[in-house]
Amino acid sequence: MNYKLTLITSLLSLLFLVNTSTLSAQTSTSGANYISTAVSFLTITPDSRAGAMGDAGVATSPDVNSMHWNPAKFAMIDGNYGVSASYTPWLRDLVDDMSIAYLTGYYRIDKNQVIGTSLRYFSLGEIAFMERATDIPIAKNPNEWAFDVSYSRKLSDQLSGGIAFRYIRSDLTQSQYVAGIETQAGNAFAADISVYYQNEFKRNRRDMVWSWGVNISNIGSKISYTNDDEKEFIPTNLRLGSALKMELDNYNSITFAVDMNKLLVPTPANGSLEDEDGTVLVGANSSDESVVSGIFSSFSDAPDGMSEEFKEIAWSLGIEYWYQDQFALRTGYYYEHEEKGNRKYFTAGLGVKLNMFDLDFSYLIPTTQNNPLKNTLRFSLTANLDKIIK
Fold first, then answer.
1. What residues of the chain score a pLDDT lower than 50?
2. What number of helices (H) and strands (E) belong to the chain?
3. Of 116, 138, 142, 117, the residue nearest 129 (C-alpha)
4. Is the separation of the CB atoms in 223 and 188 below 8 Å?
5. CA distances (Å), 60 to each of 74, 215, 292, 322, 335, in order?
6. Which residues share a beta bridge with 245?
């Protein structure tokens, strides 16, 4: 691997601090083989509802934040317009000025077609750059952002499909020199392909809704932070899941949801990058393999075979309870194998529907001590534009 690129990606991973290997440094095992990519902020849960349900959202009922989880859900959403804003103070146990902001909305063209859009902004706060220990620190504000546009359509009364296009810009080094190498902002384009199915039926005279969804996200170009030809994979991802909503009586309902999640990028041979001297460095996944080839090989390239491939699947379990469709309680659990990041945590949250606005809140509870994700809070505010305009 190119030595210069290794140094750059090492710095970027240290700056980013959300790479799974970084998050799990205290609990890593000798057999750990993390899959790391550039622009990992695209995989962070942006909204409070899914954030309170263990990061499950590909098959839950459609809402304004469907862009991140499954754009196909927009075609099944109630209403003609909607907009939502979310804010997450990120890794506040490590730094006090890192955050994620998320703005999304949708517009119904007709009864079958809906367009959606979203803007995600990740700020790493103020960081002092120094190429050498004797240099004067230069304060910069690294950031990454992504802009999405989606189109979804009903294919039948129960089935819908969606496609989304995404522009990604990652400016982590603010054009500073790293080890004498000039860096630049990375740019990439990507697309999502998604399907959503829901079936309403009655069981013991009670209304029920069973749904499933699939979303392959971030299918796109690699990204580079230097003028070198070598580029890094972005987090192409497969998410599939199912949900069951049950009416308990005229006032109460409950939903159970489960998601499976797998990165569709090559598995590193040894879980790390090394420089020319054999020094292990944490960095992003770089390979001469093409994006399409990387997607297909990701199902069979783990060094330990299929047993390791199954370890690369992360699980999300979520429960949502509604009272009179006005007040919601949510909880969930997220599981990632010890050798693939070891993120394991419970989540909880609540939601309130007001006349014209919805308020949602979530809280993350890690199962390990000294976890940098602990005390993660998410806040979401949704404007019901149909009611406001009416």
1. 1-30, 271-283
2. 7, 20
3. 138
4. yes
5. 12, 13, 29, 13, 19
6. 209, 255
The pLDDT value recorded for residue 116 is 97
CA-based nearest residue to 1, from 262, 193, 232: 232
Range of the domain at 160: 3-389
Provide the token pair at 357: 């606005």
Query: For the residues of 313-368, what is the DSSP string, one character each?
Result: -EEEEEEEEEETTTEEEEEEEEE--GGGT--EEEEEEEEEE-SSEEEEEEEEEESS
Eight-class DSSP state of 94:
T
Query: Measured between alpha carbons, how far is 361 from 330 in angstroms, rounded to an integer?
Result: 10
Domain total for the chain?
1
Nearest Cα residue to 340 out of 373, 311, 298, 297: 311
Per-residue tokens: 121: 């902004």
Helix H or strand E segment including 4: helix 3-16
* Contact (Cβ atoms closer than 8 angstroms) between residue 66 and residue 192: no
Token pair of 328, please? 């919601």
Give the per-residue pLDDT at 285: 60
What is the amino acid identity at position 56?
A: A
The single residue listed with the structure tokens 């509870």 is 365
Distance CA 68, CA 341 (A): 22
Q: Give CA–CA dist 167/186, Å, rounded.
A: 11
- Our CA angle for 250, 251, 252, nearest 5°, is 105
- Name the pTM for this structure: 0.87
Rounded-to-integer distance, Cα 387 and Cα 23, Å:
42
pLDDT digit string, tens, across residues 5-36:
444 444 444 444 444 433 443 344 446 788 88
Q: Looking at residue 137, which CATH number applies to its domain?
A: 2.40.160.40
- 15 close to 276: Cβ distance less than 8 angstroms: no
Rounded to whole angstroms, the Cα distance separating 60 from 354 reads 21
- Tokens 């859900």 correspond to what residue? 73
Q: Are 105 and 83 in contact (CB under 8 A)?
A: yes
Give the span between the Cα atoms of 117 and 223, in whole angstroms. 23
- Helix (H) or strand (E) segment spanning residue 297: helix 291-297
